[in-house]
């Protein structure tokens, strides 16, 4: 048994009555996932943006325009936000877009059910103690807060501030990450135009301009938006952004492998280079519905280092694509695996 075998095969007639969980649990607890691959904060230390990306970042900083970074999954778009956070020593407020997201999710979330329940209980309790001539007293507002009635609104107890609200009120320069915006409904980007232009939005419970949630002019937050290019974004949104595309180039691949080399130090340079060549060969397979990205390559290298630390470069070079060890790390669709395992592809 090797260190990779945390779970071991059991015979069909295995007697669970004699099963001792101590050894399996010990193997499970001993496994440590690579920190720089499982954590954006840790991975930021290994991230190295190229010269073109640095130019785009500097332009966005000077203009305080949103930086829209596009590219295939795994090219380091999200990681850039945490690299900038580490480099400048600033807070990152992140939001991962979903298919059901609305622009309001970036501003705040209001728990209407909890508020109505609280209001109902307060009203019911007031009726139990009040007489006909004594209607329930209105909510009391502290005198010092009378000029900011919106802040004293009882509904504020049921508001959860979103990334934009937190960033606008942050006492220092910070960064807002809007991740995978192309997954949002069509109107989502255009609904953010005011926030991107003026770096402010109306208070949810006040129409007065002085109550608007806005960033201080001397510490406007940086805004980083990422997209996997699954669909085209509206022109009005694109006009407000500095746009940079991260291409999946051989240089990018080699740089990513070198940066994360500590996670698979058991593999020599020749083996890593052979793995990169097979990865690039996979990406050239036009019939695949989903091509592997850098994240898949790094996961494959980590798995090879732990499961097959003695594998040689020649073995990797000569093994058919459909028979590559731990192909499941690279190909995530069963139809693609079937294509790679066709006799003609071997």
Describe the protein.
By secondary structure, the chain is of the alpha/beta class. The chain has 2 domains: 40-109 and 146-246, Rossmann fold; 248-345. The protein is built from 16 helices and 9 strands. The strands form 3 sheets. A 5-stranded parallel β-sheet has the order 2-5-8-1-9, sandwiched between helices.
CATH architecture of the largest domain: 3-Layer(aba) Sandwich
CATH superfamily (homologous) name of the largest domain: P-loop containing nucleotide triphosphate hydrolases
Our count of domains comes out at: 2
Q: What's the tally of helices? A: 16
Low-confidence stretches: 128-147
CA-CA gap between termini: 30 Å
* Dominant shape: globular
Helix/sheet category:
alpha/beta
Average pLDDT reading: 86
Helicity, in percent? 40-55%
User: Strand order, biggest sheet?
Assistant: 2-5-8-1-9
CATH class of the largest domain, anyone?
A: Alpha Beta
**CA-atom Rg in angstroms:** 27 Å
- DSSP, total strands: 9
Main β-sheet description: 5 strands, parallel
CATH topology of the largest domain: Rossmann fold
Percentage of residues in strands: 5-15%
Q: What is the string of SSEs from the N terminus onward?
A: HHHHEHEHEHHEHEHEEEHEHHHHH
């Amino acid at each position: 048994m090797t260190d990779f075998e945390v779970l071991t095969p059991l015979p069909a007639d295995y007697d669970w009555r004699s099963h001792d969980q101590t050894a399996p649990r010990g193997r499970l607890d001993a496994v440590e996932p690579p920190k720089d691959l499982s954590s954006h904060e840790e991975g930021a230390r290994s991230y190295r943006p190229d010269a073109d990306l640095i130019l785009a970042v500097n332009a966005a900083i000077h203009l305080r325009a949103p930086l829209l970074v596009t590219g295939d999954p795994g090219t380091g778009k999200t990681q850039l936000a945490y690299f900038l956070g580490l480099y400048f020593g600033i807070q990152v407020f992140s939001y991962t877009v979903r298919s059901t997201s609305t622009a309001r999710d970036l501003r705040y979330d209001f728990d209407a059910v909890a508020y109505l329940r609280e209001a109902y209980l307060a009203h019911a309790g007031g009726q139990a103690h009040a007489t006909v001539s004594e209607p329930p007293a209105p909510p009391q507002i502290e005198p010092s807060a009378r000029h900011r009635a919106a802040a004293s609104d009882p509904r504020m107890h049921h508001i959860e501030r979103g990334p934009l609200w937190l960033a606008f009120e942050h006492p220092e320069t910070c960064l807002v990450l809007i991740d995978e915006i192309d997954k949002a409904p069509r109107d989502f980007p255009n609904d953010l135009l005011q926030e991107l232009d003026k770096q402010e939005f109306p208070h949810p419970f006040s129409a007065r301009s002085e109550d608007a949630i806005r960033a201080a002019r001397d510490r406007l937050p940086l805004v980083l938006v990422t997209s996997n290019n699954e669909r085209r974004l509206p022109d009005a949104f694109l006009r407000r952004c500095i746009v940079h595309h991260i291409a999946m180039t051989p240089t990018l691949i080699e740089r990513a492998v070198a940066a994360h080399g500590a996670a698979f130090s058991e593999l020599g340079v020749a083996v890593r280079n052979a793995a990169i060549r097979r990865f690039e060969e996979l990406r050239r397979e036009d019939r695949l519905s989903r091509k592997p990205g850098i994240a898949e390559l790094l996961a494959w290298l980590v798995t090879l280092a732990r499961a097959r630390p003695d594998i040689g470069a020649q073995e990797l070079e000569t093994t058919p694509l459909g028979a590559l060890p731990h192909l499941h790390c690279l190909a995530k669709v069963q139809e693609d695996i079937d294509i790679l395992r066709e006799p003609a592809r071997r």
